[in-house]
Design goal:
CATH architecture of the largest domain: 3-Layer(aba) Sandwich
Number of strands: 27
Radius of gyration: 23 Å
Number of helices: 16
Strand content: 25-35%
CATH superfamily of the largest domain: ANL, N-terminal domain
Length: about 525
């Protein structure tokens, strides 16, 4: 975004909902949400979004909920859903977003942990229980209101929870990340200082509402006075339909995991080149393969590409512009060193890493850190740890579990997870390194490595590769030999499979469980 483009003024003490609706004071007639509906578009202005939020506030007040009571929202991203989230926030009711695609068993597990006072669906449901209902343009409908609840709080404070997002947990139960109003607004302020979009932009959001990436999109768009464009989940997996949504809504900015671009770049690159409104792409969550990124730059040479790094515990942590054009010798993208107002430290064996090229674990110093994991003090204490530079201060930083090293330019390069370092025959192996080597084989477009533990045998590596459309057939043994040329035998996959495609989970990432299941069936 150029410095001379209009900017939305914000107060320093805003709640989550106040930050998102700040543009309603000065731009009430500007579009806030542009939805793709039946081949056309439906616009909701900032003024209309504010009015919808007020209607939901009035509806929520009749249930006598106390500050801190949770409201589960089962919905995709829409104007109504965004208005409902803001209504909950204004009343001090932490919202718990859940995708309609979530299996009933997992939704029940989240409800058992969060104990919501209300559970609201985006459409009428059969056989609703007490405290369950649905919301729509005409309000909130609950057939059996929840039991009256005692009120113990009188006001909403910046440290109160704004929302709880449940992610996968290592123990097998969902893990709830609690974010306060102060934390999420602090992140939004740091993000907007990067000047990624402005009031005339339309930000296409491709993440499900239950993931924090969608809230990043909403905050980036509405906080900047721009419009958010929810891409329908059913169309995202079809490249021509996905691109049609972008053209029809005239999206200028597209946010999402890199894999949303893969099929379009592979099969309809000419249609990507025709996205004349597109001037920005922000990606996060996984590596963007450099050949694909170079192709995207060639197709849309004027677009600003931004590599976003972060975790649900802080929504995100850093933004780094991708060099244009990408240098030919580049092997890793920078992730920056923390957004404005935050800092990423590298720590190795308890000490801060100062030198370049040394891998360490990233610790995040930021006012945008989560409050803790819902009802899990042990996990919270393991993640929010004393500041390694000055532990006597009482300050807490977030131990990310991600590895990186500092380049000569002072910025960080992500290089895997701490917990992706596996033991193979007594040797440590980083799966990301194996995958990078597989991608160097001529004709390989995608690759994934997994650890298999056969009964009564030591763990071993298995790999799946997908060939580019124009690549000649290859023998699996040739890929294995290629790996052995640059890595010791314990790092080379003992099983190699050429697949038509890699399975993708609901996060848009490679589904490791399905890969393991495919191997188990052999």
């Amino acid at each position: 975004m150029s410095p001379d483009r209009a900017w939305v003024p914000h107060r320093s003490d805003e709640r989550f909902d106040e930050f998102l609706l700040a543009a309603a004071r000065t731009l009430p007639e500007s579009p806030a949400v542009v939805e793709y509906v039946d081949g056309g578009t439906r616009h909701t202005t900032f003024g209309e979004l504010a009015a919808a939020a007020e209607r939901y506030v009035a509806a929520l007040e009749q249930y006598g909920l106390d500050v801190g009571d949770r409201v589960m929202v089962v919905s995709d991203t829409s104007a109504e859903a965004i208005a409902l989230l803001m209504a909950c926030a204004s009343r001090g009711l932490p919202f718990v977003p859940v995708s309609p695609e979530t299996p009933a068993e997992r939704r029940a597990a989240i409800a058992a942990l969060a104990e919501p006072a209300l559970c609201l669906f985006a459409a009428p449901q059969a056989n609703t229980a007490a405290g369950e209902g649905w919301f729509g343009p005409d309000g909130i409908h609950v057939s059996a209101p929840p039991e009256p609840r005692p009120r113990r709080r009188r006001t909403v404070t910046p440290t109160d929870p704004a929302y709880i997002i449940f992610t996968s947990g290592t123990t097998g139960r969902p893990k709830g990340v609690v974010m306060s109003h102060r934390a999420v607004v602090s992140f939004y302020r740091g993000m907007l200082a990067e000047r990624i979009v402005g009031v005339d932009d339309r930000v296409a959001s491709t993440a499900p509402l239950q993931f924090d990436f969608s809230l990043l999109d909403i905050g980036l768009a509405l906080g900047s006075g721009a419009a958010v464009v929810p891409v329908p989940r059913t169309l995202l997996r079809w490249p021509t339909r996905f691109l049609k949504v972008l053209r029809t809504t005239r999206a200028t900015q597209v946010n999402g995991v890199p894999s949303i671009w893969r099929q379009a770049l592979r099969h309809v690159p000419d249609q990507v080149a025709e996205l004349t409104d597109l001037r920005g792409v922000l990606f996060c969550g996984e590596d963007f393969p450099l050949p694909e990124l170079r192709l995207l730059q060639r197709l849309r040479p004027t677009a600003r590409l931004v590599n976003c790094y972060g975790a649900t515990e802080s929504m995100a942590a850093s933004f780094a512009d991708v060099p244009n054009p990408l240098p030919g010798e580049l092997d890793r993208l920078s992730i920056g060193s923390g957004h404005i107002g935050a800092e990423l430290l590298l720590v190795r064996e308890g000490a801060v890493v100062e030198e370049t090229g040394t891998v360490g674990e990233m610790y995040l110093r930021s006012p945008a850190l989560f409050s803790g994991y819902w009802d899990d003090a042990e996990a919270t204490a393991a993640a929010l740890v004393p500041d390694p530079v000055e532990p006597r201060s009482g300050d807490r930083v977030f131990r990310t579990g991600d590895l990186a090293y500092r380049g000569e330019d002072g910025e960080l390069r992500f290089c895997g997870r701490v917990d992706s370092q596996v033991q193979i025959r007594g040797n440590r192996v980083e799966l990301a390194e194996v995958q990078r080597r597989l991608l160097e084989f001529p004709g390989v477009a995608e690759a994934a490595a997994v650890v298999v533990t056969p009964p009564d045998r030591d763990p071993e590596l298995a790999a799946f590769v997908v060939l580019a459309t124009d690549a000649p057939p290859v023998e699996e043994r040739d890929i294995l030999a290629f790996c052995l040329r640059s890595m010791p035998s314990y790092m080379a996959p003992s099983r190699m499979r050429v697949a038509d495609a890699l399975p993708i989970n609901q996060h848009g990432k490679t589904d490791q469980r399905k890969l393991l299941a495919a191997l188990a069936g052999e």
